[in-house]
């Protein structure tokens, strides 16, 4: 069962992905979560900064948990793209990535640090999957960063254009890059360039 505190964190992440960090007030979170008025400062004595940090952590955990369900590198890439794609369509292009929203809008270091940690965590998960699939460490690091930047950039463009085609195009191209890296390492006994 989700506690009132957890509902507030989840509501913050959901509101940020649609409205951005600056446009999400604590009163909006209280209304969205159904939490009583005084609960915000009871559960989050650090105020809005603490709430934003925990919402970013929630989003980081949510995506990392989805990535963990994949059995290989291609699956990890697929699950992230598919998750963002389905949310775009389900919300009529209102839902972006809450971590991007915070990273772009945050005006305090603790929140920016949490966003940086979320991106680093996701990138490391993709990198580790690639290494497990036989891609050399340096190449895995490069592809993982390309994947993270491409995924987030494609999501922003798709949301802004109100069209999933940018996300689909980047997904196909990134999938081809990952498949080639795995194939070159596993099937041919040589490493990718």
TrEMBL record:
Gene3D superfamilies for this protein: Tetracycline Repressor, domain 2
GO MF entries: DNA binding
Domain HTH tetR-type residue range list: 15-52
UniProt keyword list: DNA-binding, Transcription, Transcription regulation
Domain spans labelled Transcriptional regulator LmrA/YxaF-like C-terminal: 76-173
PANTHER family per the UniProt record, alphabetical: HTH-TYPE TRANSCRIPTIONAL REGULATOR LMRA (PTHR47506:SF3), TRANSCRIPTIONAL REGULATORY PROTEIN (PTHR47506)
Designated name of the protein: TetR family transcriptional regulator
Source species: Mycolicibacterium sediminis
């Amino acid at each position: 069962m989700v506690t009132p505190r957890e509902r507030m964190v989840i509501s913050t992440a959901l509101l940020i992905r649609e409205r951005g960090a600056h446009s999400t007030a604590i009163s909006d979170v209280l209304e969205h979560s159904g939490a009583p008025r005084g609960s915000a400062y009871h559960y989050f004595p650090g105020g809005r900064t603490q709430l934003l940090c925990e919402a970013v952590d929630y989003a980081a955990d949510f995506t990392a948990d989805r990535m963990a369900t994949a059995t290989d590198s291609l699956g990890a890439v697929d699950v992230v793209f598919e998750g963002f794609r389905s949310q775009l369509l389900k919300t009529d292009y209102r839902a972006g990535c809450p971590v991007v929203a915070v990273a772009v809008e945050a005006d305090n270091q603790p929140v920016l640090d949490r966003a940086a940690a979320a991106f680093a965590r996701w990138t490391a998960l993709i990198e580790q999957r690639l290494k497990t699939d036989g891609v050399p460490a340096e190449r895995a690091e490069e592809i993982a960063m390309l994947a993270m930047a491409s995924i987030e950039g494609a999501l922003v463009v798709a949301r802004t254009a109100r069209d999933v085609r940018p996300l689909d195009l980047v997904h196909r191209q990134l999938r081809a890059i990952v498949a080639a890296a795995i194939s070159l390492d596993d099937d041919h006994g040589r490493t990718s360039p």
